[in-house]
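Hi F.,

I've been meaning to write this up properly since the lab meeting, where we talked about keeping a consistent format for the predictions we share between groups. The idea is simple: the sequence comes first, exactly as it goes in, then the C-alpha cells exactly as they come out, then a line or two of notes. No screenshots and no reformatting. I'm using this chain as the first example so we have something concrete to point to.
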Amino acid sequence: MELIDFIIRLLAATTAGGALGIEREQNNKSAGLRTHTLVSVSACMFALISLRIIGSDGAGDPSRVVGQIVTGIGFLGAGVILHRGPNVLGLTTAATIWCSAALGCLSAFGYYWELAFATVLVIIINTFFKKADFLFQKKPKKDNKNRKDTEMFE
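Output, unedited:
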C-alpha cells in the first residue's frame, strides 16, 4: 500500500468518525467529536496494520484484527453506559462508538461508498429515530403514594 492510499484511508475514517461525533456533540452526549473521531481513526489504523503485515503474499487474515477491534470497542462502549435507578443511560452513545469503529474498518479496507452510506445511515438513525422515540416511551404513573421511596432514584 502506498503512503498516499494510507493517508486517504485515514482521512476518510477521520471524516466519517467526525461526522458521527458532531451529531453526538450536538445532542450533548458524553462521547462526542474527539471520541468518535479517535475511535474511527484507531480502528482504521489497526486494520491498516493488519493489511500491511499480510502484504502481497496473502499469508494471514485481517479479519482477526477486525474481530479484536470489535471486542475492544465493546469494552470502551461499556464505559459510557450508566445505570441510575430504573434508567439506563448511554446505550445509544455506546452503540454509536461501535459504529465509529466499524466505519474506520470500512475505510481501512477501501470501501468508500459503503463508508459514506453507513455514515449517513447512522446519523439518520440517531437523528430521526430519536424524534420517533416519544411514540414508544412509557407514560409515568400518577400514583404518588410511595413518592418518598422513589425520590432517591430520580
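Notes:
Confidence is low (pLDDT under 50) at residues 149-154.
The longest strand covers residues 82-84.

If this format works for you, I'll send the rest the same way.

G.
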